[in-house]
Specification:
The chain has 313 residues and is of the alpha+beta class. The protein contains 6 helices and 14 strands.
Length: 313
């Protein structure tokens, strides 16, 4: 019989050392975040990969995704869904975020990520397509539009020569935030089966959960003033097909995550009720957009399968 106990090897990590390394990594916080989402009745997936539209050789990964739906209509199963797209950070040092005041908070409705059918609706009086966030007046109830300040920059801290602390940008975090913004953009581009005769809309929430402390920083008389906080919102951008795409990312401490999810669920219920208040109009818009998408999907499939000389459109 083979002895399962590893032999002493000074070059090999012991189980105790492996446990300590895992504890100091981000693996355990991912599991805890997944449990918090599951406890709030979200359908949870971990370590989700997505093809990177900017570079197919470098897929995008996010740590945890939780989705929860609310029925708008039981007969045709019209539904709205909240998608919480989460990156987990086991930051052993504080992360400081430099905040700026928001003079016109309602303009943040343009940062809200949503998609599906319908994503807009035709106003038959003006003959103008109205985006869903305008029709449903998300500026009045979405938490993005209640933020009096938003971070636009951040820094982390390292020791120089083991002595003085240095504040500096962190490329690893910046890339992680950009990937999260990109994933949220791709996540809300569209959802649901085109054959279903119903409304299917998803609102996406990119969020970073920190195990360690986070701070807000404001400048006062050319000096930084720092305050430990549990929740900050960050404006961050990514590149999609050569174009800059912005996202408003919620940054929360691990202890604050359940409170944040209560906000998400409250907004999901408002989202459901607002859609229900325009139900007939939005159902017609959804069906029109699904027919258009189905037609384009069919043409694309044929164009890929049939030589161009044989096409009649």
């Amino acid at each position: 019989m083979v002895d399962p106990t590893p032999h002493s090897n000074p070059g090999q990590a012991t189980p105790e050392e492996m446990a300590a390394a895992i504890t100091s990594s981000g693996y355990l916080i991912e599991a805890r975040v997944a449990r918090v989402l599951a406890n709030q009745a979200f359908f949870v997936q971990r370590n989700i990969f997505c093809t990177n539209p900017n570079d197919a050789t470098k897929p995008i990964e996010v740590d945890v995704v939780g989705r929860r739906g609310e029925l708008v209509n039981h007969e045709n199963m019209s539904m709205v869904t909240a998608s919480v797209i989460t990156e987990c950070k086991n930051n052993d040092q504080p992360v400081a975020f430099f905040v700026q005041p928001q003079e016109i908070t309602e303009l943040n409705d343009n940062w809200i990520k949503y998609g599906g059918y319908p994503s807009f609706s035709l106003d038959h009086v003006t003959n103008i397509h109205v985006p869903l966030h305008k029709l449903l007046e998300m500026k009045d109830w979405h938490h993005y539009c209640q933020a009096s300040e938003v971070a636009t920059q951040f820094c982390t801290f390292t020791r120089t020569n083991g002595k003085k602390w240095k504040a500096e940008p962190n490329d690893r975090y910046s890339k992680s935030f950009s990937n999260l913004a990109l994933m949220a953009t791709l996540d809300c581009e569209g959802m649901g089966g085109l054959q279903l005769q119903n409304i299917q809309v998803q609102i996406s929430y990119p969020v970073v959960v920190f195990q360690g402390p986070i701070y807000r920083v404001v400048e006062e008389q050319d000096k930084p003033k720092l305050e430990a906080v549990n929740h900050i919102q960050l404006h961050h951008s990514c590149t999609l097909n050569g174009q800059a795409v912005g996202a408003q990312i919620d940054l929360v401490t691990e202890s604050e995550l359940p409170v944040f999810l209560e906000t998400v669920l409250a907004e999901l219920r408002i989202f459901r009720d607002r859609i229900n208040s325009h139900y007939d109009r939005l159902l017609n818009s959804a069906l029109d957009q699904k027919r258009f998408a189905s037609s384009n999907a069919f043409k694309k499939a044929v164009s890929e399968a049939v030589p161009s000389s044989c096409r009649r459109w």
